[in-house]
Amino acid sequence: MVSGQRGAEEDTMIAEPEPDAVGRGWVIPPGGSKVDAIFVLSGAHLGIGRTERVASPVWLHLREVTNLDALGDPVDGLQGVEISMEDHSVITAGWTEPFIDSVLATLHRLLDPQPAPAIDAAPVQPAQQMPDADGPFATAPAASADLPAPAAPYAPPASSALSPPVVPPSPSAPPEPSPEVAELERSAAAASVTRAAGSGAAAALELEDVVYLGGYPGHSRRRKKCTASMDRQKIEVNGPSDLSIRIPWTDVRTIEVQNSDEARFRMNTKIHRDASALVIECEQEVTVLLEARDCPTIALRSAITQLLDGLSVVVV
User: Fold this and answer.
1) Residue-range domains of the chain with CATH
2) Per residue in 103-113, pLDDT tens?
3) CA pair distance 277, 282, nearest whole angstrom
4) 269 closest CA partner among 255, 290, 284, 286
5) What does DSSP say about strands 314-315 and 252-258: parallel, antiparallel, or unpaired?
6) What are 207-228's pLDDT values in tens digits?
7) What is the mean pLDDT of the chain?
8) How far apart are CA 181 and CA 282, in angstroms?
9) 314 has which bridge partners?
10) pTM of the full predicted structure?
């Protein structure tokens, strides 16, 4: 009798995914109060469970997250974060730094126009049949085996969940580029790379809307409406009030391109959501910070990597 009851319970349980990262902290659910919690990151889902009772965690789909902000400074090893969802609900939580890094890495994989990771490689149901939760504090998503079969034999790849459903082209018409490819092409155009005539290699990179955030000796003030130009010899920043900075690549160890979330969490620097931060680490412990407006992070990093190919500068 016991084994029969156990089998029935297992049949009614919702399959929970294997965790990629686990962290302890605290959470303030919408309309609730602060409680200790345990967080589970699994694929594109974030599970939140209370520590004072044994129960399955509730699950958030990370594709429904519209914003993730840090709140103040860490306290007792936990960084406060504010999670905004598509349904306008807001969840406040306290996470450890390793768990924050894991969540950010997953968000980048979901939002950047790159091939989907292996965990999401299997075809999924069309958007109207996705097992997304109705709200941020709903039960775990059902296993894909319980979903109805797709209405049509064609199924878009997992990464298309960020875009409208893709309609397969007719055999007689040339295939249209996928939304991911079109977005990548638009992003690459925003970086405005100038190529040397007949060489095929990037000769210069011009950024026309740059904010100088500081770091260079003698220039501590923040300056807007600057420009930044890079070639194979140097990076040069010019702006109002006689701002003129010229750094040869021989004096630069690394140049890192960060999106707005990375800049907030790692550099404690707030930039526009559509901008990228340039962190230029030079010799003699000098670090110069720039904000490049309207420059997608992936396209800008790719352009800089191409420009500096073969030089000793490490592009991160």
Assistant:
1) 2-129 (2.30.29.30), 187-315 (2.30.29.30)
2) 998 888 887 65
3) 16
4) 290
5) parallel
6) 989 999 988 988 888 888 899 9
7) 74
8) 35
9) 254
10) 0.41
